[in-house]
Design goal:
Order of helices and strands: EEHEHEEHHEHEE
Largest sheet: 6 strands, mixed
CATH architecture: 3-Layer(aba) Sandwich
Strand order of the largest sheet: 4-3-6-1-7-8
Number of strands: 8
CATH superfamily: Phosphoglycerate mutase-like
Strand content: 15-25%
CATH topology: Rossmann fold
Shape: globular
């Protein structure tokens, strides 16, 4: 079993905006750029799964004319809900709240939102429900990708912000026995 984790195109939002679970538009030119090379790097026989948020749906659906099957939408692939932080600039958020979140990034819950552990639980439940001999392209968000990249390989969620995931970046994970291995990290 292989998972092709694919981050959505660049959102069309102000720099520094906290937008996690908020549905935001994308930069159309970035979608076009991704479509110029992604279809040759993804397996057409794999099932395409997507977060319900528009920034993922646009990319997943745009793959269809390139020979990919219909999109299966799964709410467990949506980005982390930052609660009351959503739609605000990170620089405007109360410093003590950000510090508390960073001090326990796996378990701290932003006001009105969810923790990374909750994101990991729902994204791991998604993977557990996939057929065993299955290849899947998963169009999702950096938070979901980070939790899957760590959790599936048995790594702690701490140090979460250490690995940057670019818009449109692909990671390939393969099940090996009871665990998972990272095969490819392609920008």
């Amino acid at each position: 079993m292989k998972l092709w984790l694919l981050r959505h195109p660049q959102p069309d939002v102000p720099t520094g905006l906290c937008y996690g679970a908020t549905d935001v538009p994308i930069v159309d030119a970035h979608l076009d750029e991704l479509l110029s090379h992604l279809p040759t790097r993804l397996p057409r026989h794999a099932t395409v799964y997507s977060s319900p948020l528009g920034r993922c749906q646009r990319l997943a659906q745009a793959l269809q004319p390139h020979g990919f099957g219909p999109v299966v939408t799964d709410a467990r692939l949506r980005e982390m809900d930052f609660g009351h932080w959503e739609g605000r600039l990170w620089t405007e958020l109360p410093r003590e709240q950000i510090d508390a979140w960073r001090a326990d990034i796996a378990h701290h819950v932003p006001p009105g939102g969810e923790s990374l552990s909750e994101v990991a639980r729902r994204s791991l439940a998604f993977v557990a429900d996939l057929p065993a001999q299955h290849e899947a392209i998963v169009v999702t968000h950096a938070g979901v990708m980070q939790t899957l990249l760590k959790s599936l390989r048995g790594l702690p969620l701490s140090g979460f912000a250490g690995q940057k995931i670019d818009y449109g970046q692909v990671f390939v994970l393969q099940r090996e026995g009871a665990g998972w291995a990272l095969l490819e990290d392609a920008a």
